[in-house]
Amino acid sequence: MILFRKFRVLILMVFLVACTMHIMIDLLPKLEKRAAGSSSSAGGGGGCSCAHTPGEEPRSWAKQRPRAAAAAAEPGWPNKHSLRLLQDFSNEPNSNLTSHSLEKVTERAESEKRVRQLQLGSEERGLMRDTASGQKQRAVQGSSRLKALYEHPLYKPDLPHLSEDDSLFNLNSDVRFYPKAAGQQEWHNEGNVEEEEDSPAGEATGESYPNWLRFHIGINRYELYSRHNPVIGALLKDLVSQKITSVAMKSGGTQLKLIMSFQNYGQALFKPMKQTREQETPPDFFYFSDFERHNAEIAAFHLDRILDFRRVPPVAGRLVNMTQEIRDVTRDKKLWRTFFVSPANNICFYGECSYYCSTEHALCGKPDQIEGSLAAFLPDLALAKRKTWRNPWRRSYHKRKKAEWEVDPDYCDEVKQTPPYDRGTRLLDIMDMTIFDFLMGNMDRHHYETFEKFGNETFIIHLDNGRGFGKHSHDEMSILVPLTQCCRVKRSTYLRLQLLAKEDFKLSSLMEESLLQDQLAPILIRPHLEAMDRRLRLVLKVLADCAEKEGFLSVVENDLEGQPSSHHHQAHRGR
Predict the structure, then answer these.
(1) What are the residue boundaries of the FAM20 C-terminal domain, all occurrences included (predicted)?
(2) Is there a single domain that holds both residue 327 and residue 392?
(3) How far is Cα 572 from Cα 242, in angstroms, rounded to an integer?
(4) Of 155, 199, 323, 464, which is least packed with CB atoms within 10 Å of its CB?
(5) Are residues 243 and 317 in the same domain?
(6) Is residue 234 part of a domain?
(7) Which has the higher per-residue pLDDT, 561 or 201?
(8) 268 three-class SS
């Protein structure tokens, strides 16, 4: 009996020793790495031992670099609090975790090598890229329709004089935008353009500021950005090239979206690829259960700019490494736990959301590369509050019920008597948004936003366009109901629509040329481009019917000062 007890004790001791050895084996590489980091930091002198250089930072989400140490080690950077205040975190602190985990140079080289191998191995994608590249080269060599469009007189009207009340920010008088420490005027911002247009913010819009901040500074009562602002092009490049330092899931919404933070403290909303370019929305899908498409977000930004609305924040496509740029830098444990390797040895994840967040609808890379759209954030709500409005022509979002506007043909008469649609340009802005959505086929416009500072006399922000470009074979005429019921449109919009219907400025050709500028080109397949031309003709037919019924001057409201509101005059202006 005693021997048996001694044997059990011996077995237990052997088990404990084995467990201890396994733990030591697991911890040894980490301890060596930490010791190496401490010794290299001590050898640098003058810095805290917890502050790492970019090449030495840990990649685990559990080892975030302390912000205070980073600020001390990098005196050229602005105060962290000042920068983060300028970002729109949607008032959700839990969604705004940031990490400064950086990949090593060798890992980056290996990643780039894998990307090249992936691109070479994918024949179908390679053919699409070759086609896009050839089209881009021909566009550069030949005459640019897009450049000619932006040189057209309709794309050159001047804005009214901007006062301080017309600018979203005035950095010269608002100290909250500056770094707290005096003299910290240098902002880390690679790729800034050399010069910038004059803006009401004055000296504070210098080229030393990051492009995302310069974008915020340029927002005013009439536009998100000016027509020929070089900062927008630089910001689009930043969205593609800036190093991703932190990723977290965006709460709210029905489908998975990620908040990505960059090395220059900018942030963007990432929508991953869910459908191929060729796939259409299944006919049995309701509009509220449709996929959100990354290429629709990209195309919506370009369409908005061609229509000269400039109400969509800048969006760019990017090929993201799911391992190094999402999994290894996220501090969101709920997101991190959803990563897995598929039977095809591809890296996949699904996150948490209302729709399509499960292993059956996982987002998988090839093997770990995934496309997505990155939309630049608007200023933080703490500094630039936005008001959310219910769209008067909001759908019921129900399988059987209909909205009031779907059963009442005189619904617009009621809307016209309701503030803020009873005065100003708000109703006309709704018509702009209606035309914009119809050209994309977007049925999901339940709310819209405006900047609270400007009251009711300002533009509508065209956010969340991911459910556009779902069906090229079908034109959803119910999207145009606001236009058919109200029969109102801005003269500037009407003239530009007529211009885009001409062969010299054909909408599909302009969109094709504009979209070639994106890294993920081609963004839209030919049937979607042709569908926009077809839908544009339908919009003009609706307006023609309205003019015949109510009279041209009652339908087309002149918003172009100094120009007569004549139906015949536009024909000459359109040339």
Answers:
(1) 339-551
(2) no
(3) 45
(4) 155
(5) yes
(6) yes
(7) 561
(8) strand
Where are any strands of DSSP class E within 378-507? 386-390, 447-451, 489-490
- 441 and 478 together in one domain: yes
Note the helical H segments in 307-388.
333-336
Which residues are known catalytic residues? 444
Question: CA–CA separation, 497 vs 546, rounded Å?
Answer: 15
Q: Work out how many domains the chain is built from and give that number.
A: 2
**pLDDT one-digit tens code per residue, 21-62:** 877 776 665 555 555 454 444 444 443 333 333 333 333 433
Domain that residue 308 falls in = 208-376
Asked if 516 contacts 474 with a C-beta cutoff of 8 angstroms, the reply is: no
Q: In this structure, are residues 291 and 275 in contact, taking their beta carbons and an 8 Å threshold?
A: yes
Residue list, annotated binding site for ATP: 255, 271, 292, 375-378, 449, 464
Among the candidates 376, 398, 414, a domain finishes at: 376
Does 293 share its domain with 430? no
What is the percentage of the chain residues whose pLDDT exceeds 90?
57
**Degrees to nearest 5, angle at CA 495 with 489 and 501:** 110
Query: Binding site for Mn(2+): what residues are annotated?
Result: 292, 464
- Contact by Cβ (8 Å): 328, 60: yes
- 48 vs 266: which has the higher pLDDT: 266
- pLDDT surpasses 60 at 108: no
Same domain, 406 and 471: yes
Domain-ending residue, one of 376, 402, 427? 376
